[in-house]
Amino acid sequence: MKLNYAVMGNPIAHSLSPRIHQLFAEQFGIKLKYEKILIDLPNFEHQVIDFFEQGGHGLNITLPCKGRAFAMANRASSRALMAHSANTLWMQGGELNADNTDGVGFVRDLKRYIDLAGKSILILGAGGATRGILSELLAENPFKLNLANRSFNKIEELKLEFPEINICLLSDLAKDIEKNTYDLVINATSASLKGEKLAIPETLMINKPFCYDLAYIKYSDTLFVKWAKSFKCEAHDGLGMLVEQAAESFFIWHNLRPEIENILRLL
User: Which residue of 99, 153, 183, 235 sits 20 to 30 Å from the alpha carbon of 75, by its own alpha carbon?
Assistant: First the structure.
């Protein structure tokens, strides 16, 4: 009998999650079906309930409903509670369980390239993606972590929850760079997904920081990665994060940890 899993999002056609989970399952001889489900935004909660009532075993949730997935859960992990969002759902004891594997997946991939301890870090954007990675990043003991966003509301909220971070407006970033240099710059905005170029000062790249985009595009660099590379900076997109967070979801569901290096090379 095949186990039934799926990823839900809107849009969803681009998702590599079915292929990744099939490759994980092959490592252990597990037979599963993993499909893509387009979220009908007004009816998201009903879609989740229907999936599990029809025998579904586990769901991954991507944009834009991670917050709504978290709100549905009867039980949430500490990671989901910290992020206020969930990307991994499953039923246990008749209750909907939720976890968020984005932060741990991000840090595991990032540590392939850079030691985070003692580093100065700048995150661009203060939405759900940032909230999902903040606690895992801070656990790595950076020297400094600054958030820059278009408006103050979200970064002020995060500052209250994480008083150790610094905040500024994107419009004030040029002034900030006059006083601070960064070892690592993370794009956590939705600009890459929308094909938009971020309005950030070129002086940010003078000291050649390592650059990472949480987004990824099939067969191409994101605009942010291309921009960073044009300044001779090392830059990577979020494909490795995608595989790492998927591996953590797979572990939650199956209590088996897949080997991912060959999968990363394949993708």
Answer: 153
